[in-house]
Amino acid sequence: MTVHVLARHRRLFSSLAAFVLLVGAGLVVRWSMGYRPHFHGCGKHRGLTIATDVDVSPDFQRRRLVEDWNRTHPKEPAALIEVARSTDTTRSQIAAALDAGSCAYDVLLVDVAWLPEYAERGFLAEVRDSWMDDPADFVPQTMATGRWDGRQYAVPWFTDAGLLYVRKGEKAPGSWDELLRRGYAAQLENYEGLTANALEVIWNTQGAAVLSGDAGGVDVKTAQQILSGLDRLAGAGPALSASRAYMEDGSLEAFASGRAPLMRNWPFAFRALTADPRVGSGFDVATLPKPGLTVLGGWDLAVSARSEHRAEAGRLIDFLTGRDSQHRLFVCGGFTPTRTSVFDDATPCKDPKYTSGELPAPERFAQFATTLKAALYQARLRPVTPYYAQFSETFRGCVEQVLNARAGVRGAARPSPGTLANALTAALKGERGGC
Amino acid sequence: MSSEGGPERPNRGIQRLTVLGIAVTLFGVLVGVYHGWLLSRPWWGQVLFVAGSVGAFVVSVPGGWARVKAGFGRAVVAVAGVVKWSWPGLAAAAFAVPAVFVVPGLSGSGGCGADLRVVTDAENVASLTAAAQRYVAEKAEHGCPGMTVDVAGDAPTDEVKNGFARGWTSPDGEDCSLAARATLLGSQPDVWIPAARTIAEGMRPYGTCSAKQNPLRAKADLDIGGSVGSSPVVMGVFGDADRQDLAGDQGRQSLAALLHVFSADQVLNSVARPSPDTSDSALLATPVLHQALRNGWAGGDREPVEKILDQSRITAGDAASMLCAFRDDDAAGKNPPGDVAVIVPEDLLARYDHGDVLTAGTGCRSGPPSQKWRLFPYYTTDLPVLDHPFVHVRWPGEDTARRDKAVADFRKWLDGGQLAREGLRSVSGKLPTENGAVRSLRDGHVVPDAVPPHRLRGDAGCVGSLQEVKDCYAGARPAYPLSLLVDVSGSMANPVTKGGPRLGRAQDLALRIVGDVRPTAPTSLFLFSAVTRPETGPVASSGSEAARPGVQAAIQRAVTNGRDLALTTAIEQAAGRLQRGKQTLVVLTDGQAPSTNRDAAAQARDLAGRLRADKPGLRLLIVPTGPGDCGAEPVASIAAAFGPGSCIGRPQAAVEDLVSLVMADVFWG
Predict the structure, then answer these.
(1) A222: Cβ–Cβ under 8 A, 6 or more apart, which residues?
(2) Considering only alpha carbons, which residue of chain A is nearest residue B493?
(3) What is this model's ipTM?
(4) Which range of residues forms the domain containing residue B53?
(5) What's this model's pTM, rounded to 2 decimal places?
(6) Which site in A119, A161, A339, B568 is 20 to 30 Å from B405, CA atoms measured?
(7) Residue A275 is nearest to which of B115, B404, B494, comparing CB atoms?
(8) pLDDT for res B208
(9) Using CA atoms, how far apart are residues B265 and B445, in angstroms rounded to an integer?
């Protein structure tokens, strides 16, 4: 009977067999043509690894924290892998490794601007409650930097907000009009600092935090506001023209040398200036003039989704972001804490190797802590998008066009609101565009 | 003819032997061709070649062709039968099989959206960054957004070699285990484009750490491909020395002959090149320079020639840095050193004259130079031609098809002559039409249409490999002992204005200095503070290449640990541990404060006097890390006591530039 069935449906069974054989042969050929890796495995290792940029903090405080962890956790030693000073290079290393499925890194130091991209690409494990001691102690804005699509992917470690530094003998400007008229040392070289500084000018002169947080697109009205803010920047005093060649260290040098009596910079400058014999305590720190909006920077700690030591990595993050660790980073290392309680305890660094004068005086430091906390509560996120790198590059290109056009650079043209709106909207979606 | 196997047996035996001989010969040829050439061909080319080879074999065997024809006939009959009964299935397979090769999930993912990490010779960073930006923009336009290409400059060759051998970590004296801290040399490259193939071939990782022992320390796999563009190293002169009547036919003279005619006419008095410790173009040009200058200005050995080069008025870490310094001097209204010739790559000279970007970072002006600061290239037969090979680097834990495709795609794009727009010539040395910068040098000046790459030229025994080049260069510098005295007091924890703690800058300087001394030169490291006193001896020392990583590791491990130890006390204690003889003691410090260095001037005068008597060969060199410089007390008084040139203070200088000054002083000061 079976033979009879087979004979009757000879063509059907032959066709099926031929189809299966040919497709199977195709798959075999395709497999044989496939890539043969030279190395196998994801990079399994013993112990924990933390991928970061190079620690350039005073006295390498981050390294010392890891040493403390190793002393108290000999069965879960951690190794700090410092990639580079450049944040772009550090990002590139971490992204490439994780994209390739590497499990070499357990804990990642993540610039707040990269977090949406990393989370979107599946690089990060969701934070568990046990990885954060007393979550309510964190400054709310900083917790938001570790969140994407409603989920917490990172724990804030240290943060940044813009501050105004004023040489003694100078009066702090009472408004942005006055600040721009007098001019100040800023960071207007074509890198991320330009994005931060330009956004602050726009927000504060226009009284609106446009291009902040979830900025899905930019309409013409918003673009007009942005351009109005950039026009104010372009028309500012001579100190701002010089700032087009400055990053953080350039503006610091201009302020320390006396060329610029006013400076906008990050909190690290407080310690640097105190230790500079040309300055010492000869300056004051204030929040930016009202409304005092500033860009929220900072770095969070996350567990790699590829890590094979997630539980231990979580414990390490809990230790590093704990109150005691953050306090030490703040008073000894100049890092801005993300925990509110740390600001309220400005006990000086207890390290006996410092003489008086090598560290800020306790009263000055306490005053600085108060100012910094106030600035932090006025800090706003940059646009939160997985395509932040494209956005920042496009935005900076447009800013340069405005500045160059005002400076009379040949070929430069101030973009129209429509052009700017299109360029920024495309960039926020990861598409290429420009002014 | 044989009925019982007589004469036929020998015939069959001969036939079998013939077939065996042909098969073995063909197989051997195939294997050789396959590994040497065929592997680089596309897969269909390989199939055709193998099929053709097999066909040739079959035809060559006696009776083989007849058998093939008969077999072919039987196969045709069989296939006809299969088609008759299976044509519906075959028709369906005609659609399904191509899908296997096209559908992404089945065909394997492309390299779209990958983050590529590119490391290149430091002098090439600006060009490659510009090219990478164009590549990323093109990919985005063609439906592949989110791609990033990060370009960074590479470290000196010794560090790079160690890096490829040990997970791209900087030397830290560790074995295959991972210390509490490891510093990478930057992001691990997927693509490495060094200055020349000589450099690439000298980098074969020698490491003993396997991925199983420690994947974070394992060695890389290097696949050295072909060139992506070339650039001859040229002799550049300023306007006053631009004498084409002296040069004769461009590119037909040796460097020695060219220098001879220029110096005979008193047009040029000296030659400058970037530091070979950090500039690969300068390193590769050094054998020719030694040969040319020995025959011209210095005569005799290499050492006096190297002294002339090291003590040039123009010093810089690399050619880009040198040309950036020219732009700064031009902007400041200074006059160029018109009697000095500079040895730099043609593409950089062209970008300089064209006003293009020279470095990827900040701090270097752009814009064309004023007329008096223009540089004019002169070509020789023996200066090296940089051929920039493309090296595909694979790392344990990251070796995937997707990454492989991304690298291959970038390579294919570069192979289209994309670097011509950044000033490079073609692979064969021809000047492409798109190379506007070099073509613009033709404005009143001869620039050859072609400068073909050639083997490295110079003294015999100095050009056969990278190691030979480095040995000859190192051998031309004296092997005097060098001791480092590094301040680890509390103030060194504070930042310098360039960023980072002062100790960090001191460590960067110390690491470079140790890397630049001759491997056989005795090297010692002392640390000093109120807690760590030099009188107890050095924390590390070396007298060989093998022992050097130990000193480098000790430098990296240094931390601040106490209050100030007065500078004169520290110097005295360290000097007390040194032998007699010609040597240098380099002090790396932020200069401390007068309050912790009371009566420094008198103490320094007293100490200097005693040391001149006890150790007349000892030279002191203070290098402030910043923010203070040589004019700040107590450094100013101490330097004054030890004589002119006892302090080199450039707190704002890049580490490479400062170290080249320091080393020139260490070797010849």
Answers:
(1) A210, A211, A421
(2) A59
(3) 0.87
(4) 14-62
(5) 0.85
(6) A119
(7) B494
(8) 66
(9) 20
